[in-house]
Specification:
Chain A is α/β, with parallel strands linked by helices. Chain A folds into two domains: 238 residues, P-loop containing nucleotide triphosphate hydrolases (Rossmann fold), CATH 3.40.50.300; 146 residues, abc- transporter (atp binding component) like domain (Coagulation Factor XIII, Chain A, domain 1), CATH 2.70.50. Chain A is built from ten helices and 18 strands. In chain A, β6, α6 and β7 form a beta-alpha-beta unit. The longest helix of chain A has 16 residues. Chain A is globular and about 95 Å long. The termini of chain A are far apart. Chain B has one domain. In chain B, α4 packs across α9, α6 packs antiparallel against α7 and α7 runs parallel beside α10. The chains are: A alpha/beta, B mainly alpha.
Chain lengths: 411, 267
């Protein structure tokens, strides 16, 4: 069964140069506006229990599409059908009253979603528990940080068990631990045959959380399909326009502080993109791709890249990432004459492997980031994350293990 | 089409009672949250206003005692008109900002938007209703209590309906034309002085008096005075009240329901 069905959806906005034009048009019945097509001919279905990701550049119409799905905007033409109760997280705590306590806002927000008071009372504890705001719940929400805001809003929206959950960029605000909880909650949600529409600039989340994805461009569907595939194409497209990847973004943020670095940035912008990473994987010594490792296991990190230009110079690097933003261990191929860095020919497929002798991590999960960087190792032109790799827990304490040898001597 | 819109308009506070209830609670306590005097302001403002007006009119201008109302003190005559007007003016004054203030909610959450002008009118009426009730209790102890007082709740509800329609229209128009915010303030001042509240009708020139029948607020004020002080009221005022209340309520509701879908585009 379809839980969301959108047919030939169009949305126009009328743009008035001056506010009085709107009135004049009403009175004189002469058009005085320009029409701006925000969405054109958008059609898609979401099946029950499936989730859809929406990606695209700023201004592509993502938010408008979300509002149409929720019903706060009316389509100019075409239809939107949703089945069951729709809960939306389009803005951090849109229904919150800043002067009231978190607890009061739970009631207010849940009744906006159409939940009876008695049910809210039953859910209240769970919501407070999940949001981890027990110490703050009786303080006015205006004293909350934006992370706390979104935690409360997310807890309410998902706790009322809607049939369709529409989320717009909400996860980005919470801290990593909470993001992980959200992802888990959203996965439970899918398991209960509920549907979800998720709009985000975090390609990783879209890939992990969504079955299918839509790439919107200037109000039209540019591509639609399996989320991994669409995300990959979109990332490609972004890279080819040299818009920033995560690593570049960080580099840019750092650079904008010094003007000397700006010149470097300009120089970098001139360099055409040289390569595209096809995949980053972890293999065991038998060459099999793995997603779990044992402490002290020997592993091989591998990235495969396609060279896009002749005479490309590429330096390679790997990083083990915890929680996607913390580097726990990084390896750069720069300054190592023994690591080949080109020039490569156009069309070549390069496989780079890095062998790690003994995996020192004892607990936790990580991702491997494969990247292509410049000679300094500071600018990562192109990066790709591996699947999440899990460390098999073993006996013992502490976060890492080292190769060790024991000795007991009698004297 | 029209009838289903009006049915939705009328039934929505019942159908969405919990949300309505939450909104009313929120607005009611929100009015006093964060202010020191809180509830006290509710009584201070009208009392200070009344002291000012009665000083100006009975001491400075020496307004003649209102005709036809016996030897009632001018302050009581004034208050009977002023308190219900204050409820009306308060609700109208807030109307222009109602939807604009709630813009994030309206654009991001799907809910019956028509509850907003209803709550926006109900809350000032509840607040001022308390003040009026206290005043009536005082009058009762002064020996004014009469059977005709039973009509007062009816009149107050009619005035509420009259207000709700106007508030719905103003709040909706304000979304499209922000200038209405300024206009409403001006209009209320003019309306206040064009209604015989701080002066008796008898002060107006004879030929202007019939024109007052076009001003429903005049009928409301006059009704309250007659019912409270004389224990009887003229049918014509009651008719004007019923007709204006029903017309305003239905017209305002119909208009609001017609254009509420466009709010998302403009807000």
């Amino acid at each position: 069964m379809h839980s969301i069905s959108v047919n030939n959806l169009n949305k126009d906005f009328r743009i008035y140069a001056r506010p009085q034009d709107r009135l004049l048009e009403l009175l004189l019945r002469q058009p005085r506006h320009r029409v701006f097509h925000v969405l054109q001919d958008v059609s898609f279905d979401v099946m029950e229990g499936k989730s859809l990701g929406i990606i695209g550049d700023n201004g592509a119409g993502k938010s408008t599409l979300m509002k149409l799905l929720v019903g706060t905007l009316q389509p100019s033409s075409g239809t939107v059908h949703t089945k069951g109760q729709v809960a939306a997280l389009l803005e951090l705590g849109a229904g919150f009253h800043p002067e009231f306590s978190g607890r009061r806002n739970i009631y207010l927000n849940a009744s906006l979603l159409g939940v009876p008071d008695d049910d809210i009372a039953a859910l209240e504890e769970d919501i407070i528990e999940f949001s981890e705001l027990r110490d703050f719940i009786d303080r006015p929400v205006k004293t909350y940080s934006s992370g706390m805001y979104v935690r409360l809003a997310f807890s309410i929206a998902t706790m009322v068990r809607p049939d369709v959950l529409v989320i717009d960029e909400a996860l980005a605000v919470g801290d990593i631990a909470f993001q992980r909880k959200c992802v888990q909650r959203m996965n439970e949600f899918r398991a209960q045959n509920k549907s979800m529409v998720f709009c985000s600039h975090s390609m990783y989340h879209v890939q992990e959380l969504c079955d299918t994805a839509i790439w919107l461009e200037k109000g039209r569907i540019r591509e639609m399909g399996q989320s991994e595939e669409i995300v990959a194409r979109y990332e490609d497209y972004c890279n080819s326009r040299r818009s920033y990847t995560k690593a570049e973004e960080q580099a840019k943020a750092l650079e904008s502080e010094s003007s000397a670095a700006k010149a470097e940035q300009a120089e970098k912008d001139k360099t055409p993109k040289d390569a595209r990473i096809i995949h980053t994987v972890v293999r065991n010594t038998d060459g099999e791709i793995i997603d779990t490792v044992e402490p002290l296991q020997e592993v091989i990190l591998e990235l495969q890249a396609e060279i896009l230009n002749d005479n490309s110079i590429c330096y390679f690097g790997f990083a083990l990432m915890k929680d996607l933003d913390e580097v726990i261990s990084a390896y750069l191929g720069t300054d190592r004459p023994d690591v080949e860095h080109g020039p490569f020919r156009k069309g070549e497929i390069i496989t780079v492997q890095l062998r790690l002798d003994a995996m020192a991590l004892r607990v936790g999960n990580f991702h491997v980031l494969g990247g292509i960087n410049d000679a300094s190792g500071l600018l990562w032109y192109e990066t790709k994350l591996s699947k999440e790799i899990m460390v098999k827990t073993s006996k013992g304490l502490g976060v890492f293990v080292m190769k060790s040898e024991w000795k007991v001597e009698h004297s | 089409m029209t009838s289903s819109l009006l049915r939705q308009w009328t039934l929505s506070p019942i159908r969405h009672f919990r949300l309505f209830h939450q909104f009313v609670r929120q607005e009611f306590s929100g009015q006093f949250a964060g202010s020191l005097g809180g509830f006290l302001w509710l009584f201070v403002t009208p009392i200070v206003n009344i002291i000012i007006y009665s000083f100006v009119f009975s001491v400075v201008f020496r307004a003649p005692m209102p005709e036809n109302f016996g030897d009632v003190p001018f302050v009581i005559f004034l208050m009977i008109g002023y308190l219900p007007w204050f409820a009306f003016a308060d609700a109208m004054g807030r109307s222009s900002g109602l939807l604009l203030d709630k813009a994030p909610l309206i654009t991001k959450v799907m809910f019956p938007v028509q509850l907003i002008p209803m709550v926006g009118t109900l809350v000032p009426y509840l607040v001022h209703g308390i003040a009026i009730f206290v005043f009536l209790v005082y009058l009762a102890t002064q020996g004014y209590l009469q059977m005709a007082w039973l009509w007062l709740p009816v009149a107050f509800v009619l005035q509420f309906m009259f207000t709700i329609g106007l508030v719905a229209i103003l709040s909706a128009f304000c979304v499209f034309l922000r200038d209405i915010q300024q206009l409403v303030a001006l209009m209320l001042t003019a309306w206040f002085f064009l209604t015989p509240i701080i002066y008796p009708l008898s002060l107006l020139p004879e030929q202007v008096r019939p024109l007052m029948m076009l001003n429903p607020m005049h009928s409301f004020v006059q009704f309250y005075r007659e019912a409270i002080l004389l224990g009887d009221f003229s049918a014509i005022h009651f008719q004007v009240m019923v007709v204006s209340a029903v017309l305003s309520y239905l017209l305002g509701g119909w208009l609001f329901m017609r254009i509420k879908h466009a709010f998302g585009d403009v807000l």
